[in-house]
TrEMBL record:
Cited Pfam families: Paired_CXXCH_1 (PF09699)
Range of residues in the leader sequence: 1-21
InterPro entries noted in UniProt: Multihaem_cyt_sf, Paired_CXXCH_1
Name this protein carries in UniProt: Cytochrome C
Top-level taxon: Bacteria
Transmembrane segments: none
Keyword set, alphabetical order: Signal
Domain Doubled CXXCH motif as annotated: residue spans: 41-84, 91-130, 139-178, 188-226, 237-275, 297-346
Lineage: Bacteria, Pseudomonadati, Thermodesulfobacteriota, Desulfuromonadia, Geobacterales
Matching PANTHER family: CYTOCHROME C7-LIKE DOMAIN-CONTAINING PROTEIN, LIPOPROTEIN CYTOCHROME C
Alphabetical list of SUPFAM superfamilies matching this protein: Multiheme cytochromes (SSF48695)
Amino acid sequence: MKTYLLLLTLLLACAAGNAAAAENCLSGGCHAKIASFKHPHQPAQGNCLSCHREKTPGHPQQKGKSFELVAKGSALCATCHDALGKKKVVHAPVKEGECTSCHNPHGGNGRHLTQADENQKELCFGCHDAAPFKKPHVHGPVAEGACTACHDPHESAGKALLKGDLKELCLKCHEDFAKGMKQAARVHGPVKNTPCTSCHDPHSSVHPSLLKEKMPDLCLRCHKEIGKKMSSAKLVHQPLTDAKGCGNCHSTHFSAAKGLMAGDQKAICLGCHGGKPLGNLPLRDIAKELAGKKTLHGPLKEGKCDGCHNPHASDYRRLLLGNYPVSFYAPYREGAYDLCLKCHNKNLLRYPDTTVNTKFRNGARNLHYLHVTDRIKGRSCLACHETHAGGDDKLMNPQGTRFGQWQIKTRLKLTATGGSCAPGCHLPLAYDRERAVDNAKAQGVGR
């Protein structure tokens, strides 16, 4: 018992001596700055001798130092803190035992005894080049100087001292993407199979959305066939050439629609082709053409504009998928009607008589052939049909087709096996697929 009391007395005396020594260090006019830190190191507030020991009596001395550290480098810190440097990737200062390259051993204005306040960039840029972090478009944590939001300052199991799997780390903040990806019918391949940094710079970029390259160049790294088409085609779809590029029509991460479309294909197209100007020129108002029409062209009825148009690039006017006459008169020749014949019977215009290639016939006489193959005044599809929608059956326009300043009304009347029309081109003529009509009295009028 006496031994225990003696030991306790000695410990209390030692502690009192340490406290007195610390008090003397802070208030003696030599080390007063140590007490001014916003975040002081706990031992520096009353236990200086836990880190320092006197090696020469008579402190302070005019020459030399009378105190030394009780241990060197990180070994000193490890007397209180758990030892670091056991994981796969270790921050260089930690690996070298240089804790004080980032931390002030007495205190700091930032948390964790760092010299920087809340903005960690000041500290990190002491070693890391600042230029890659100061481009026009900056990632939120970088802008805030919150480097440790993504990186562990000491050690990590993954490269770049990341705090976890890269994609999971991104989705911890981008919760909307995490939720959307789980619910989406289609997820973009790179999003599903590669890190986010395949497309995005995690720090800053000269391109919007932190993209590593401008649109559409970034997408064309993978979509090489589209790139090849764009580089050789006569016409490139204008949205591909602006800053948003592919993102004008496609969802870049996930979508419920085929082709990662950012919504219904027709609705996306009409978002621009609904009277919206292209620079100083208004685009053709297709939305107005479709409004209230009785009949939609087959692809449009299915909500598809790409049945006739290439959404990226084409050698044909209006980004069409093939040749399509633009004039009222366009005599048939091989290849001239390739666009229409992609879907319609390829023999539609080849034979003067047929019973299988068209329903527009009088008996076996092919009336499509009759109208289109005349070598001087062969009429194009436009002479009778609308390309997108018609107010009547067969994509006919009740107001007629424009012929210069005149609109030629067709006055089409259909029956179960044929019909009749009376346009400005000729007097009323009838046709019937089962029993040919004799129109001899009206033949040749107005031709």
